[in-house]
Amino acid sequence: MARFSTFKVGGPAEAVLVAESQDELVMLVQWLHKNKIHSYVIGKGSNILVPDTGLKGAVIVLGNKFASLEIEPNDDQETKKSTTLVNAGAACLLNKLVKYSTENNLSGLEFAAGIPGSVGGAIVMNAGAWGGEMSDAIHSVTFMDPEGIIMSPGKEQLQFAYRKWGGSKKSIVLSGVFSLTKGEKNKISATCKKYQKARKIKQPLGIPSAGSFFKNPQSLPAGKLIEDAGLKGFSIGGAMVSPVHANFIVNTGKATADDVFAVMQEVQDKVLHSSGIMLEPEVHILGEEGCQA
Ligand SMILES: Cc1cc2nc3c(=O)[nH]c(=O)nc-3n(C[C@H](O)[C@H](O)[C@H](O)COP(=O)(O)OP(=O)(O)OC[C@H]3O[C@@H](n4cnc5c(N)ncnc54)[C@H](O)[C@@H]3O)c2cc1C
């Protein structure tokens, strides 16, 4: 799975299956469910950690047919004038959605400029930055349950919270509709560029990682707690606490998933000792969570 993960670590899955159409996906999901085979759906792998022992069962990847991007009619008389709805397929790159919105003078997703990954992954993670998160812009989400049934609840039914959505772990997000406000292309573009520039300064971008490894506790950012525990640059094998941003665990070249787990554990222990706070991974560890049958 190393090649399906931006961390570039992880052992083999029993099968990686690319669903090329919704019909194919329905058949696949129903077959896996009937045969009680575990499965995982992944997006672009920018927030996952796969153990070196690999994954039992199948990994599902959504193919190009799930990467559509289009403006859809807004029938709501109250919001029609000010709001435009954009429908994005789960496999569409989040940055492509941000670019498309900018080109169409639509504001609301600037915060997401530079966040790697797919629209589906960003919805499930409720990805966010600079005070914004996906749920701010989401209007509704279409997903498939393990029996192949498709539904499209509105945002209020989905109980988004910090870095998570309320949908079942067994659901596969197919697309999302985003409610964006009309704005000026130049202003939207300038905000996106400002955020992208700040990322380049604050984050170790040229080196494999899964972004911020731990969730920020309410009291202090995880990066500050890790830095205060003296762990910047701490490494085990090929995994290291980034000297640029302490909440990034990076793969310096030859890391194994075990190296990453060992660094994770050491960081949790040391931060617990120095601050009394137990850091919780933001990165999804497959094989533990996300397992579907
Ligand atoms: C350099 C870097 C910077 C980052 N910066 C940020 C940041 O600023 N803010 C932030 O929030 N995140 C950040 N991340 C983390 C990551 O980019 C986001 O969490 C992203 O939204 C994950 O999308 P993905 O497609 O890669 O999902 P994946 O990593 O493939 O999957 C993440 C989770 O979502 C599930 N999933 C994926 N697609 C679907 C689907 N279609 N249906 C159901 N479940 C699905 C997977 O099973 C897994 O549990 C960063 C990562 C990197 C490497």
Structure, explained:
There is one protein chain. The strands form 5 sheets. Strands 5, 6, 7, 10, 11 and 12 form a 6-stranded antiparallel β-sheet that branches. The protein has 3 domains: 2-65, Uridine Diphospho-n-acetylenolpyruvylglucosamine Reductase, domain 2, CATH 3.30.43; 67-193, Uridine Diphospho-n-acetylenolpyruvylglucosamine Reductase, domain 3; 204-285, UDP-N-acetylenolpyruvoylglucosamine reductase, C-terminal domain (Uridine Diphospho-n-acetylenolpyruvylglucosamine Reductase, domain 1, Alpha-Beta Complex), CATH 3.90.78. Strand 15 and strand 16 form a beta hairpin. The protein is α+β, with helices and mostly antiparallel strands and 293 residues long. The two termini are 19 Å apart. It has helices at 22-34, 94-103, 119-125, 134-137, 185-202, 222-228, 257-275; strands spanning 13-19, 39-42, 48-49, 55-62, 69-72, 83-89, 106-107, 128-129, 132-133, 138-144, 150-151, 172-182, 209-212, 235-236, 239-241, 248-251, 284-285. It is globular, with a radius of gyration of 19 Å. Residues 289-293 have low confidence and may be disordered. It contains 7 helices and 17 strands. Residues 6, 40-48, 62, 90, 115-118, 120-122, 124-125, 127-129, 172-173, 203, 205, 209-211, 284, 290 line the site of flavin-adenine dinucleotide.
Key traits:
single chain, about 290 residues, alpha+beta, Uridine Diphospho-n-acetylenolpyruvylglucosamine Reductase, domain 2, Uridine Diphospho-n-acetylenolpyruvylglucosamine Reductase, domain 3, Uridine Diphospho-n-acetylenolpyruvylglucosamine Reductase, domain 1, 6-stranded antiparallel beta sheet, 4-stranded antiparallel beta sheet, 7 helices, 17 strands, about 25% helix, globular, disordered C terminus, binds flavin-adenine dinucleotide
